[in-house]
Amino acid sequence: MTGIGTTLRLLHDGERDLEQDLLAAAARHHTDHEFHHVALDVAGWSREHAARLADAGRDLGLDLSGPRDNPSPGALAALREKASEALGRRPATGLLLLHDLRDLHLAAARNSLHWEMLAQAAQATRDERLLALFTDCHPQTLRQLRWTNTMIKILAPQLLTSV
After folding, report:
1. What is the tens place of the pLDDT at every residue in 105-115?
2. What is the pTM for the complete model shown?
3. How far from the centroid of its chain's Cα atoms is residue 123's Cα?
């Protein structure tokens, strides 16, 4: 497998992981409506990115569309949602949200770096399709990063000083 293929696979897996992490965090923090709904929306971006990366991989002879190694959250997500409702907005819940935001931010940053690497390879090989994919998808990854960073900046002062 070429370096481009490896990067496509890493990015595809990263987008799928970020989608699942966003969905799990949204379920965990169901009572924080703003976070919950935005997390669901930006998870859709990662789902779309993964699908588009799978298409690009197919053009290069890679099969990236296989089943996920992780099972779907299903009953576990329902349990998390009930626990979230029971906990409400307690300080421990806020710290868990900060922890989730940190992990989501780091995952989005990793994906952003892989997008940048893919774009550099696309420029070097003059692959217009990969460059167009980068141009379409990377801005949404940067928005995911800005969202998590903004949420951390808003929540951290209150949550870290009240505990």
Report:
1. 999 999 999 99
2. 0.83
3. 25
Q: Among 112, 141, 126, 143, which residue's Cα sits nearest to residue 7? A: 112
pLDDT at 7 over 50: yes
Q: What is the DSSP string of 19-88?
A: HHHHHHHHHHTTTSHHHHHHHHHHHHHHHHHHHHHHHHHHHTT----SPPSSPP-HHHHHHHHHHHHHHT
Specify burial of residue 99 (Cβ count, 10 A radius: 0-12, 13-18, 19+). exposed
3-state helix, strand, coil in the chain (%, to 5): 85, 0, 15
43: which 2 tokens? 């998870």
Could you tell me how far CA 119 lies from the centroid of its own chain? 19
Which domains can be identified in the chain, with CATH numbers?
A: 3-162 (1.20.1260.10)
Q: Which of 131, 5, 142, 125 is nearest to 60 (CA)?
A: 5
Which residue, among 143, 154, 155, has the nearest Cα to 96 in the 3D structure? Answer: 155
Of 72, 10, 15, the closest CA to residue 48 belongs to: 15
Handedness of CA 85, 88, 92, 98 (dihedral sign): positive
Number of C-beta neighbours around residue 12 at 10 A: 23
- pLDDT tens for residues 22-74? 999 999 999 999 999 999 999 999 999 999 999 999 988 888 876 554 444 44
